[in-house]
UniProtKB/TrEMBL annotation, chains A, B:
It comes from the Bacteria. InterPro entries: HypE (IPR011854), PurM-like_C_dom (IPR010918), PurM-like_C_sf (IPR036676), PurM-like_N (IPR016188), PurM-like_N_sf (IPR036921). It comes from Humidesulfovibrio mexicanus. PANTHER family: CARBAMOYL DEHYDRATASE HYPE (PTHR30303:SF0), HYDROGENASE ISOENZYMES FORMATION PROTEIN HYPE (PTHR30303). GO terms for biological process: protein maturation. This is Hydrogenase maturation protein, carbamoyl dehydratase HypE. SUPFAM superfamilies: PurM C-terminal domain-like, PurM N-terminal domain-like. Residues 161-307 form the PurM-like C-terminal domain. Belongs to the HypE family. Pfam families: AIRS, AIRS_C.
Length: 338, 338
């Protein structure tokens, strides 16, 4: 094959078949994909969770990951957050003509490794190569399918007054890692994206505590935006305590330098977990037993709104003892963060 | 909302929610989507067919359709070709900052109408808006999920000597419609893309003739490339008769003008059906009863290779009585055709 991706690698003809055979099958190999059909036939339970995401991250390679790993982790996590065991992924590549093959190779290899670590099979896919300038390097869509393990599933509208709000670890790592790469900022300790598949931790949690009310990964828009979605869907107040929110010192430093708020920065390997108060300690213990969630902490509580039917909102108890309303993200803080 | 798509419509924050609420929910409305979760929970049979495709067609509006309708039809067809009833679609938008909202509106409306006609629900989605220049206008990924209705499913490796090769209608309409739009060619009779969802015709066929061996839609690479994939996977010769292959006069004319071969042009509303000889007439009758397949014809037969184990290939019996080997598409005839 050429050392750059050529237009005809996406033609559906001979060159496409070579690309699939020599690169995709090598890294994604599984019986369903090997049949080389236009799709896959899968055995699943009667209730499945499905989620889709397109990844456009710029740059495609960043400290702690790349667009390929991110495309697997991001969708695996979305499916896991629905209370399901992720089992299958589809992937759709859009590649700019001329992308170095070695870069495509690294991305595909990294997707394969991420899929194996998460225990999912990439069962079918599609590759489009578009002329130079029609897309910036490479974008990847993944759609995930998983078997529902708890029903009713955790959902954004199930937060109830009295629940505890937990977070699986530090906030803002992914957003600041991407941004500092773009800006050419260097930190004493290299700042890595947290991108990782959380399905093993989620599975352990749901098997032991099936009454988890809400699971959400605070990606675009960060913790503040995701909590606002939950508060609004559930009609509750999410009150979080500033001093309890874990943020790395270098993320804090980078944020104040750049005028950013870590509560609005994207995360790609963290989740919010809202459980009945009685389950809070058990949930934290289960989370901390997973290597990706060692820094799990309780960060707040769910309260009723002042009047029945009043809109939900998010309050931050600040270090100085005051209370501040945390709104949703307004405007776009960081385009192409994921 | 603004009259152009702004970056923050893809931020995951307030503007994203407005876009989903005011545009996507309006045209795609269904209970699962309305829950506004990061994914959907679906009830399906134990065996599902899944297919994914990214659509990058240029231009996004063309005679007979647009990228939105195409994104529904294309994936609905891929799922149907797996021997399944398409039920759910996910969609992932990548939109260039500045796209006129009226264009996005037309595309989303057209997706909604196509989904209703096909009887599928768009249950979850994702929207990314990227800065100007990072993508050309709009690309759409759809992933389709359907319940398998026959098992073993029709598949590319099931063509057997003695089978009949049928086509559901004229070839090359989509490819030539796109290309003539790009080149500014005008025909006396306007040439329309054939893009349409074939699942109703496929469903009727499979319910009455469950032993259909192969179903494939000849999209990128056209009839010749798709038949080569089948011949190769099944280890057979697909012999087709030039004079029996339906091609509109204006497509023939356009192709000779532009130096293209209609057998390699993309179709978006046609399918190849390979059945045992004994089922051929019944299959044609069922196909012709569907308004989208009125021009269904038998175009050839499956033959054994000369020696057992010899590679499969495609032969064209020409109008002059000769035989010509039809290879796979080499190179890229038409980038961004779908």
């Amino acid at each position: 094959m050429s050392d750059k991706v050529l237009l005809d690698y996406g033609s559906g003809g001979k060159a496409s078949q070579r690309l699939i055979g020599e690169l995709f099958l090598k890294h994604f190999d599984n019986p369903e994909l090997r049949r080389m059909n236009d799709g896959a036939v899968l055995s699943v339970g009667g209730r499945v969770a499905v989620s889709t995401d397109t990844f456009t991250v710029d740059p495609p390679f960043f400290p702690g990951g790349d667009i390929g790993a991110l495309a697997v982790h991001g969708t695996v996590n979305d499916v896991a957050m629905m209370g399901a065991t992720p089992r299958y992924l589809t992937c759709g590549f859009i590649i700019e003509e001329g992308l170095p093959m070695v870069e495509l190779g690294r991305i595909v290899e990294s997707m394969g490794a991420a899929a194996r670590a998460a225990g999912v099979d990439i069962v079918t896919g599609d590759t489009k190569v578009v002329p130079k300038g029609a897309v910036d390097k490479i974008f990847i869509n993944t759609t995930g399918i998983g078997d529902v393990i708890v029903d009713p599933a955790p959902a954004g509208d199930r937060a109830a007054p009295g629940d505890a709000i937990l977070i699986s670890g530090t906030l803002g790592d992914h957003g600041l890692a991407i941004l500092s790469t773009r800006q050419g900022l260097a930190f004493e300790t290299p700042l890595l994206s947290d991108c990782a598949s959380l399905n093993h931790a989620i599975g352990a949690l749901l098997r032991q505590l099936p009454d988890v009310h809400v699971l959400r990964d605070p990606t675009r828009g960060g913790l503040a935006t995701t909590l606002n979605e939950i508060a609004s869907a559930s009609g509750v107040i999410c009150e979080i305590v500033e001093d309890d929110i874990p943020v790395r010192a270098e993320v804090k430093g980078g944020c104040s330098l750049l005028g950013l708020d870590p509560l609005y920065l994207a995360n790609e390997g963290k989740f919010i977990c809202i459980v009945p108060e009685a389950d809070a300690e058990a949930a934290l213990a289960i989370m901390r037993a997973d290597p990706l969630c060692g820094g799990a902490r309780r960060i707040g509580s769910v309260l009723p709104t002042d009047k029945p039917g009043a809109p939900g909102r998010v309050l931050l108890r600040t270090g100085l003892g005051g209370k501040r309303l945390l709104g949703m993200l307004e405007g776009e803080q960081l385009p192409r963060i994921c």
